[in-house]
Amino acid sequence: MVAYIIRRLLLVIPTLLGVMIVNFALIQFVPGGPVEQVLAQLEGEGDVFAAITGGDDAGIGESAGNDQYAGARGLPQEYIEQLEREFGLDRPPLERFTRMMWKYMQFDFGESYFRSIKVVDLVLEKMPVSISLGLWSTLLIYLVSIPLGVRKAMRDGSTFDTVTSALVIVGYGIPSFLFAIMLLVLFAGGSYWQIFPLRGLTSNGFEEMSLLAKIGDYFWHMALPIFASVISGFATLTLLTKNSFLDEIRKQYVVTARAKGLTENRVLFGHIFRNAMLIVIAGFPSLFIGVFFGGSLFIETIFSLDGLGRLGFEAAISRDYPVMFGTLFAFGLLGLIVGILSDLMYVIIDPRIDFEARG
């Protein structure tokens, strides 16, 4: 197992390098850049896209790769060159990429172009929101889906199985942002009830509250965002749990256990559960990362939560390259390590699994 982990860790380096190369290369062909963002604001264009087109006088195809910036009319060339030096864009792309990766290997992610704050500090500032959504959403999905999936497997083909399958599939088909808006309208002072707060992670005066009041206030604010995040997550895990149990129930060792006179609960939880839950529990790290990083932009925007989803979106719009590439490197590395942890979970749950013996 140690040799397998070492091989996987060594594969992290070329994989992460490939991800960074592809994204860095793509960004070279995207119109606009941090310099154009500054010029757009100075020229009163409002955003980089107006600066790229340059109004009625510039062609649509002009971009930051040209000798003259479309949004730089009337600005001295010396000022533009100074901006390029400040952003490090006066060097060739290969040199910029090499310098960037060398710093990243030392976990130096630089400073945001437009916020005057280190990327690490910026991410840590936004982390509580994303951790809250990711952690509680994942736990809620597991707490509901696993018992429901087991129950559906034990009553396969019954009315209960049919009705619950219909409900989870309908929930899966509802977009999370649409469900979030519906929750706001119904329970956050829209047109019906004012039960939950409309925005934020905590209330005013949170620091002065008692510990119990802080916990209650925190979950009061997180209730609707978490519910909106998990509505489409029940279906996959519930049906996976059900099918995993059905596969195990039909195996010979279950027939033998029943023939020995074991009770149904002993057969279910003493024999079937461990084998059936292998694939479900081992997928917990990857599911958490998926909820943590994916699909949170709309939820954070609708509920006015300042997390990593909004951070990534705003960095892409403003062409804040240190934030874009720094978070891409850090989260890419985290995702690859989580993949290794998922394999370790298999071994912990079932020691009979030996990855070193695979083809």
Short description:
With 359 residues, the protein is mainly alpha-helical. The protein contains 17 helices and no strands.
| Helix percent band | 55-70%
CATH class of the largest domain: Mainly Alpha
Shape: globular
**How large is the count of helical segments?**
17
What structural class do the secondary elements suggest? mainly alpha
Give the topology string: H per helix, E per strand. Answer: HHHHHHHHHHHHHHHHH
Largest sheet: none
Our count of domains comes out at: 2
Protein name: ABC transporter permease protein
GO biological process, one term: microcin transport
InterPro entries: MetI-like (IPR000515), MetI-like_sf (IPR035906)
Subcellular location: Cell membrane
Task: Describe this entry's structure for a reader.
The chain has 359 residues and is mainly α. It folds into 2 domains: 31-108, no CATH class; 120-357, Orthogonal Bundle (MetI-like fold). It contains 17 helices and no strands. Helix 6 (119-154) packs across helix 14, helix 7 packs antiparallel against helix 10 (234-249) and helix 8 crosses helix 9 (211-230). It is globular. It starts with a helix and ends in a 10-residue tail after the last helix.
